[in-house]
Amino acid sequence: MAEPMLQVKNLSVEFHTAAGTVRAVKNVSFDLDRGETLAILGESGSGKSVSSSAIMDLIDMPPGRITSGQIIFEGRDLLKLSASERRKVNGHKIAMIFQDPLSHLNPVYTVGWQIVETMTAHGMSRPQARAEALRLLGRVGIPDPEGSMGKYPHQFSGGQRQRLMIAMALALKPDLLIADEPTTALDVTVQAEVLALLEELQQETGMGVLIITHDLGVVAEIADRVVVMNAGEVVETGDTRQVYRNPAHPYTRKLIGAAPGKGAMHDPLPSAEPVLSVRGARKVYGDFAAVEDVSFDLMAGETLAIVGESGSGKSTVAKMLLRLEEPTGGQALWKGQDLFAMPERQLFALRRDLQMVFQDPTQSLNPRMTVWQLITEGWVIHPGILPRSKWKARAAELLHQVGLKPEMAGRYPHQFSGGQRQRIAIARALALEPELIICDEAVSALDVSVQAQVIELLDGLRKSLGIAFIFIAHDLPVVRDFADHVMVMRKGRVVEAGTVRQIFDNPRQPYTQALLAAGLDPDPDVQAERRAARLAMAAG
Amino acid sequence: MMSFIRKRAFASLISLILLVVAVFFLSRLTGDPAALYLPSEASEEMRRQFREIHGLNDPILVQFGRYVWDLLHLDFGDSVRRARPAFEVVSEAFLWTLQLAVITMTLVTAAAIVVGSLAAFRVGGFFDRIASLTSLIGASAPDFWVAIVAIVVFSVGLGWLPTSGTGSVWHWILPIGVLFIRPFGLIVQVVRGSMINALSSAYVKTARAKGVRTRPIIFVHALRNAMLPVITVIGDQAAALLNGAVVIETIFGFPGVGKLMIDSILQRDFNVVLAAIMITAIAIFIMNLLIDLAYALLDPRIRY
């Protein structure tokens, strides 16, 4: 058998930081052939991105340093090539697309110019490159290729920008495409389209695809083989189906076990009195209606999930309830009082009942405050809650409740991991003994294993403390495990609402059905079935 | 775009009007013009005549109205000391200053961009250290001292360059050289900082993944993004030069608007002072407008 196109052998990478030397990648080996799709699966800090950056010579050196290993591509060790020889490989033989296409496209040049540059950088004449760029834009499904050539990145949607990146990467028909979390920032329906496009293009060109992801669903959808990485090491390699069915390593088992969307669904009891009842909520910015005629009821101790893609208005609803955005119309009765019409003074007293946990704890926790200050701040503002003598004991209890240690109270947010920070944010919300917590994409930025823990924590608090939750999310499997009721939103309006069983087992609206169908299941067989169904639908 | 220019012009017009009012009344607060302009031994008859000719006996508001009316016709009155229209006197001086500022800032911008960009490319490298040190010294060296030292060394000591005046190309070298130093130091530092940011950005990573050569990565991909904060500083520095580099113009006997303004203030030649203020104010307004247009030109996300 001939040598595979790409062989990474015993690659090790170190980073020299102020805190000391970090071995980000340890003796990593994998290979990939033409026409094949290999996924590197791992959580944050697993070294998956560093490994792929090493192939493209994109590790910043210093502080990064490749300490051992070979990267053999088409018979040559890339690590032994000169900088100018590697430059000739990049973009021509190996190309790359990234997670966040907006920041990875140069904001001040037209997309046409940027696509043309890939080709002219490797010696193609400008008119020829231009003609090819036009063809590529059409091929990746950008409307009006001719007109789009002269537009700038900010004038496209997120999904279109990723298509532009793909057009740019594939301009010279590379043998290998590295895709680093290519769909993580995209909505589910867009994600499905982009992955389908990648597969089509792979079939056309026969390139090998190396996809870096944290998402088992993406692996199930697209990968032939998978490399599982944890803490800089490869823990398992194998056929995607095989690894999913019979994971050999405990870490892989943990990762598969943590994938959301497999637990039993909640069966909410019919309840008499809602604690919150929203009627005809509306928010208008200028001529644009962000939220239009949204109504729902929330029962005490229940979880309502508001689901939708970007721009659906789901976060605006949450912000209106807390009056972080002034509502344009409608009412929201909280135990009989209208939150939308309440004067500021009265609202102040109610604030402690309604708390919010945001998506990114790195931004929502003040970096200059210790955990102790963050938790006790609410007690300073609302002096009635707890006498000062009991603060210490209660703070310790709260930290314990969210799975942290009381002695961590003196630390600052940056000294914690992402999951721990979100626990701090939850402890902060709990300190005020709220009756409703609004979680705005509160677990979206977390690794799956951490996500599962945080969800479990929230559900436990709901049961033991009777707190009601409004859970805003774009990720359907997470919602399935946690919600009692689900409300699907699109373009500011409610598309469909019902119990979690109704929505997931029996969606009535085509949009809900499409949303569910676009979601990726971690099981490769389930995913293969869905794909077949999707293709049949597209064909017929 | 046009409405933006109109809005800016309107805002500037208001400041110009306030300026006109302030200059007129402040100059009157310094005393009776007849006493100020005429020699102390002038007779009462001469003073009366002077007031008659210049309409100083009319109510102050009438005088102000006449003064504004003349201004609208670009008539700033005559320079009392030079017996020529003040506007003409100032225009000549301003042209000198404008040439000095344009030449200096063009050189500064070109040099600072190249040096700052290369320093940012290898942070902490040999070139970066040299560039950072020189720019720090340049930004903090007092220009009057540099000017004097330069005259002592290049004119008096080596005899290569004239000490002052404007006769030939050689006369320009010292003033430009000295004026170059401080803005160069400042702008190199801003370019360097801004370029370090731009070079670590995601789009530069994309460019490297595309196989783009190093030089276009620095000067095409990163530089245009890095230029926005730089342009602000360039504007600031250029405005300072347009106002007239008083000290440098005086030291080198350069007939620019800064020197003219100081001379006219000392001689109480208020018509000239006012004309100089108005012309530099308008020049600075135009320059700020150009800077705003440069923003929009560099960054397609900025639209007015």
Automatic annotation (TrEMBL), chain A:
GO cellular component, one term: plasma membrane
Main location: membrane
Pfam families referenced in this protein's UniProt entry, alphabetically: ABC_tran (PF00005), oligo_HPY (PF08352)
Domain (ABC transporter) ranges: 6-256, 276-516
PROSITE patterns cross-referenced by the UniProt entry: ABC_TRANSPORTER_1 (PS00211), ABC_TRANSPORTER_2 (PS50893)
Membrane topology: Peripheral membrane protein
Recorded GO MF terms: ATP binding; ATP hydrolysis activity
Taxonomic superkingdom: Bacteria
GO BP term, pick one: peptide transport
Entry-linked InterPro entries: AAA+_ATPase, ABC_transp_ATP-bind, ABC_transporter-like_ATP-bd, ABC_transporter-like_CS, Oligopep_ABC_C, P-loop_NTPase
Compartments where found: Cell inner membrane
Record Gene3D superfamilies: P-loop containing nucleotide triphosphate hydrolases
Keywords, alphabetical: ATP-binding, Nucleotide-binding, Transport
NCBIfam families: PRK10419.1, PRK11308.1
Assigned protein family: Belongs to the ABC transporter superfamily.
Protein name, UniProt field: ABC transporter ATP-binding protein
Species the sequence originates in: Paracoccus siganidrum
From TrEMBL, chain B:
Any single GO BP term: transmembrane transport
Cellular component terms per the entry's GO annotation: plasma membrane
Alphabetized UniProt keyword annotations: Cell membrane, Membrane, Transmembrane, Transmembrane helix, Transport
Domain of life: Bacteria
Bilayer topology: Multi-pass membrane protein
ABC transmembrane type-1 domain sequence ranges: 94-291
SUPFAM superfamilies: MetI-like
Residues passing through the membrane, by range: 94-123, 169-191, 212-234, 240-258, 270-298
Matching Gene3D superfamilies: MetI-like
UniProt name for this protein: ABC transporter permease
PROSITE patterns associated with the record: ABC_TM1
Pfam families, alphabetized: BPD_transp_1, BPD_transp_1_N
The family this protein is said to belong to: Belongs to the binding-protein-dependent transport system permease family.
Keyword Flavoprotein among record annotations: no
InterPro entries: BPD_transp_1_N (IPR045621), MetI-like (IPR000515), MetI-like_sf (IPR035906)
Subcellular location per the Swiss-Prot or TrEMBL entry: Cell membrane
